[in-house]
Amino acid sequence: MINADFHIHTFFSKCSNMDPKDLVKKAIFENLDVIGVVDHDSIKGGLAAKRIAGKRIMVIPGEEIDTAEGEIIVFFSDGKYRGNIVEICERAKQENAFIFAPHPFDFLRHSLGSNINAIKGYLNAVETFNSRCMFSSANGKAKKYADENSIPALGGSDAHFPEEIGNVFCKMSCEKNIGSILESIKKRKIEITGRKSPITMHARTHFVKFNRKFSRFSLSE
Ligand SMILES: [Zn+2]
Ligand SMILES: [Zn+2]
Known about the structure:
The chain has 221 residues and is an alpha/beta fold. It has one domain: TIM Barrel (Alpha-Beta Barrel). The chain is built from 6 helices and 9 strands. The chain has helices at 20-29, 44-53, 85-94, 136-148, 178-186, 199-213, and strands at residues 2-8, 34-40, 58-67, 70-75, 98-101, 125-130, 153-156, 168-172, 190-194. α1 links the parallel β1 (2-8) and β2. Bound molecules: zinc ion (2 copies). Residues 64, 71, 102-103, 109 line the site of one zinc ion.
């Protein structure tokens, strides 16, 4: 049995100040075995966390890409997946990357909403629990969508700060290797338990974003 969290950010996202070193340390402390590390339009955090983690914890690098139609996560991205959602998914499919729809029905963020239907056939997973969804109905809608369309469900803390790591555990009966993990996702044998991030974390995100906008030094550049 392994524990996974498929959605964590680092300071390569403008709204987070989490050092990949602190991320890895906290994830190990929380007994996570596998973490998906994604930043907004950057694969740098995922690659840095993977390098830092070594064999201590498995890091799946990716990015949360902002498109005109909403955000989409691609794991194993080379950082060059740009365009509209169909173009991104088509290329990701050809290159065996993993396509994951984060918080698809959270209207408070730039989510896919009904645009998800255009890429339904490409999705490897839908995020049916995201700790940063303020309204539980957004997660409920995502779960319903995944069930109705037989798309695998995954959970993510969407952690921007170390305190949020441990908010989600995807319990999977598989080996700690990528082949076994992907197989387990495909078979939809995952038990997701999660709790919401407190509202103070959202406020902190805006504070970090604001501070970095007006700071001469930007960590992500
Ligand atoms: Zn997002
Ligand atoms: Zn995110």
